[in-house]
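Lab notebook, bench 4. Still working through the backlog of constructs that have no structural model yet. Next entry is a single chain of 171 residues. Request: give me the structure tokens for it.
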Amino acid sequence: MAAAGPERQAVWSAGTAGDLNRMDMAGTNLMSKETMMRLRSCVAGLVLVLFGSVAHAAEECPAKSNAMDDIIAVLNTAPSCDRAMKLFEACEYGASGDVQFGEIVEKKCEADFIGRLKPSQKLRYQRELRVCDGKYRNKSGTMYISFAAFCRAKVAQRYSQRALKAGGAGR
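Model written out:
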């Protein structure tokens, strides 16, 4: 790093620092609480997206290509619900195509518990799936369709994990 010359020192004079502080204060005072809340929400959303993509990047999609048929084939060969979910996360589109992937995960997970649920438990499970469907119903954009597909798959995965933990006795 080069040493700061006289030109650089002049840029950071006391007068300039004071001007910067006055500008900063003015900008802060003009920003409404609502604008600050929106900015915080945007930053929080960006952080979630960045960390989410880093978490999903932990495993590469093992499909031959990112074609839907190749991903479906990989999901169908998953040996368990949990593995299918990991593959779904690794191969996701982040769009409406994820609905088909999520349905495969749901079916694979349901094989672990659906036949053992009592009628009231089955109704509860179906209600939780409907909550996922309704959660993003009024949102526009295909990413929300993906979010709903992941929500449904996670519900099915939770039920599967509970059933397997209970020794296959259901929930």
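Notes after review: The two ends are 63 Å apart (CA to CA). Helices lie at 6-11, 14-30, 33-56, 68-76, 81-91, 98-110, 119-135, 142-165. Flag for follow-up if needed.
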